[in-house]
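DM from R.C. (forwarded with permission)

"hey, sorry to bug you on a friday — could you get me a structure for this? deadline for the figure draft is monday and I only need the backbone to look sensible"
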Amino acid sequence: MQTTFMEAISITLSSMAIVLVTLGLIALILESFRFIFKPEVPKDKPVVNKVVEEDEEEKVVAAIVTSIIAAEQAQHTNFHVRSIKRVK
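My reply, with the result:
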């Protein structure tokens, strides 16, 4: 059973249209999740944005860099950064 060139083009275009429509439906479903599952904002606590001073930020960066350098210089050790806590 031989297919002609026009039949092959028709099959290709219809397949591409089916894939495009399916991807569009998936995108719409995923976008609707934003409205269905809205995060609840607690109304009793105001949202506070904390501004980090540059000096404090530089101290944190320096601590992270020195820990990385110490980890690179030690051979055959298992250093893992589990958490970073801010020291006041």
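R.C.: lifesaver. The chain has a mean pLDDT of 79.
me: no worries. Residues 5-36 form the longest helix (32 residues).
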